[in-house]
């Protein structure tokens, strides 16, 4: 657990406790061990479910969403934080938050329109 202070737009200090996401090594292996090491991403809340399935399910395929994508989606769309504030909480840049949001939104839209299930990847 790591404790951080976040200054909100109203200039109030907010204390947050977040857990280190262990999937950094998985992301590095996906890239083939080239380039610099990925920045660790902090995830403050684990998802309550592992998958979401439409009713009725049109095809057997499922779409995988990474925990980082779900956290960015939760912070920006659900909690209403700016991309900069979400990046600060996650320990990554605003540009990385934007990329995660675009990927997550595309996957959710595809699953909703094509009747596919959504599975949240494990660490």
Describe the structure.
This protein has 123 residues and is α+β, with helices and mostly antiparallel strands. Helix content is 39%, strand content 21%. The protein has one domain (2-120). A three-stranded antiparallel beta sheet has the order 1-2-3. A hairpin with a 5-residue loop joins β1 (2-7) and β2. The longest helix has 21 residues, at 94-114. The two termini are 16 Å apart.
Write a concise keyword list for the protein shown above:
alpha+beta, single chain, three-stranded antiparallel sheet, globular
Quick structural overview:
By secondary structure, the chain is of the alpha+beta class.
Topology:
Blueprint: E1 2-7, E2 13-20, H1 24-30, E3 42-43, E4 51-52, E5 62-65, H2 67-78, H3 83-90, H4 94-114, E6 117-120
Parallel strand pairs: 5-6
Antiparallel strand pairs: 1-2, 2-3, 4-6
Helix pairs in contact: 2-3, 2-4, 3-4
């Amino acid at each position: 657990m790591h404790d951080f202070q976040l200054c909100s737009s109203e200039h109030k200090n907010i204390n947050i406790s977040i857990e280190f996401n262990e999937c950094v090594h998985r992301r590095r292996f996906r890239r083939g061990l080239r380039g610099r090491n990925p920045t660790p991403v902090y995830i403050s809340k684990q998802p309550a479910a592992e998958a979401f399935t439409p009713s009725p399910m049109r095809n057997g395929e499922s779409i995988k969403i990474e925990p980082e994508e779900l956290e960015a989606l939760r912070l920006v769309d659900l909690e209403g934080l700016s991309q900069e504030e979400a990046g600060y909480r996650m320990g990554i840049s605003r540009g990385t938050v934007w990329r995660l949001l675009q990927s997550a939104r595309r996957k959710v839209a595809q699953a909703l329109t094509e009747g596919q299930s959504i599975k949240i990847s494990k660490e």
